Amino acid sequence: MTTNESITAPGYSPVTVDKAEIIFSSTADTQSFVIENTSNTMVFFKVQTTAADSYAVVPNMAFLVPKQSQNIHVTRAKQSGQPSSLRVGTIIVSDGSAADMDSVLIQWAEAKAALKARDGKDGEDSVDIKTSAPMMYIHRINVGENKSFNWFGKKG
User: Which CATH number fits domain 15-146: 2.60.40.10, 3.40.1060.10, 3.40.190.10, 2.30.30.40?
Assistant: First the structure.
C-alpha cells in the first residue's frame, strides 16, 4: 500500500482489548491482557507505555492474522508508584506488506502523524481516521499499583 491509497476500515476498531486497566499488587510483578483481531484483515499492533523505564511489555509489537488473539505480558521493572498507561495502537495492513517490517513501520509512523495532525495530540484517544495514511486505532489501558496497607508491620 502506498501513502496515496486509502483503505476502507470498519466503523469500529479491528481489535478488541479485554481490559481497560491492569493493577499491580505488592506480590505480583507481571500482569497480562489479551488483544484479539476481530476483523477479516491482517492487523499490526504496537504497545507503548507512558513509563517505559517502569514496565516491560512482551510482545510490544506483532502482526495479528484475522481472528487471532495475542496474550500481552506486562512486567513491572521497578515500583514507580506513579499511575501510567499503555497505548495499544493498531493499523490494518495489506497482506503483501506483512513480511516487510520496514514498510509497516513507515505506515505506522504515517498513521501516527496523521492522527496527531488531526487531533493535535499523540494518538491518545480511541479513534478511527480516514486520511491518505493508513488508519490507526488506539486503545488505552490504565496501569496502576495497589499498595496494600500493612497494619501490623508499621515501623517507627
Answer: 2.60.40.10
Is it the case that residue 11 has pLDDT exceeding 70? no
Each residue of 119-139: pLDDT tens digit?
665 544 444 444 445 678 888
95-124 burial by CB neighbour count: b if 16+ within 10 A, else e? eebeeeeebbeebbebbbebbeeeeeeebe
Number of H helices, E strands in the chain: 1, 9
pLDDT over 80 at 108, yes or no: yes
What CA–CA distance (Å, rounded) separates 44 from 101? 10
